[in-house]
Amino acid sequence: MKGLKHSIIILVAALTLGSIEKASAQTKAGILGIDHIGVNVPDMSQAVAFFTDVLGFTPVTQIGPIPLNDAWKTANHMQSGTGAVSIKMVHAGSGANIELFYYENNKGAQQQPGGDDAGATHIAFYTTDINAAVAYLKSKNVKMLGEPFHTTMGDTAGETWVYFETPWGAKMELVSYPEGKEYEKNHPKELLWSPKTAVNNLNTITMDTKDLLAIVEQHLLIWNEKDAAKRSAIAQKVYAADIEMVDRHFTATGYDSINEFVNKLQKDNPSARFTHVKAINAHHNIARLFWQFGPKEKPDAVTGMDLFVIENGKVQKLYVFVDEAK
């Protein structure tokens, strides 16, 4: 059975090389995600009132006024006569923080950039019900820049959005896609992050043990199924679209990456199957499966354990532990 173990090692090594290259690029910058978005405002009290009273944000930190020296102003392309800066960080929901900047005696341009200006930006807020959100903003006399537009074509089909204007003239957006976006149906290796996903994960309901055990049994069917179409159908029911399979040497993300791994494993070992060797353990949306893999004459040629993290009825994380060769 040395050949079976050897083929698995080669497969892992091939996936590891690609993962290392990507991880190297990610580690160089050390970026984990978006911490905050900075916004200049002409009136701090007005801006805070809008974010808190209208949008439901909570002010958390404040510093300043802080005097700015000439070197700082020059490096940051600021007018020499602009005064001290005050900064307040506000937060809501599961998204990035928003950092509000107010400059005393501001000598910079007071006009907001036009929609096609190089410096134009906007912040989009996810809402579960865009029509209700629009009605609410209108009740607060917020200026809407049109009506909600529902996208029906392209990667973002399924998304509804609309722009609105803050009291100081900055453009912002409401967006909603409760049924997901079109591009997600192709099971890409990389999914766009969204507050919708983060909130869903926070609202995970603890499943019954019998349901957890059923998911793990379905997982075994996926890895033993020879028919690609049948395997994909089961995977979509059992695995989250952005599932991560984490091995000691590599990480595979999404259906396609895992399916590629399973295809190669079955091609190299056509007579081998996965079976569990102990009772499956599960509680609090975590499950543990001890498995063996091999042909009939040597079913335990390779052994190991899978650890499942299950959220919203699907496997979100799959940690794979392969035992050392005996």
Automatic annotation (TrEMBL):
GO molecular function term, any single one: metal ion binding
Q: Which domain of life is it from?
A: Bacteria
Q: Where is the signal peptide?
A: 1-25
Keyword Metal-binding found: yes
Q: Which Gene3D superfamilies match?
A: 2,3-Dihydroxybiphenyl 1,2-Dioxygenase, domain 1, 3.10.450.50
Signal among keywords: yes
**Stored PROSITE patterns:** VOC
Q: Which GO terms describe its biological process?
A: L-methylmalonyl-CoA metabolic process
Q: Which InterPro entries match?
A: Glyas_Bleomycin-R_OHBP_Dase (IPR029068), Glyas_Fos-R_dOase_dom (IPR004360), MMCE/EMCE_epimerase (IPR051785), NTF2-like_dom_sf (IPR032710), VOC_core (IPR037523)
Listed A to Z, the keywords are: Metal-binding, Signal
Name all VOC domain ranges.
33-177
Q: Name one Pfam family in it.
A: Glyoxalase
Q: Report what the protein is called.
A: Glyoxalase/bleomycin resistance protein/dioxygenase
From what organism does this protein derive?
Chitinophaga pinensis (strain ATCC 43595 / DSM 2588 / LMG 13176 / NBRC 15968 / NCIMB 11800 / UQM 2034)
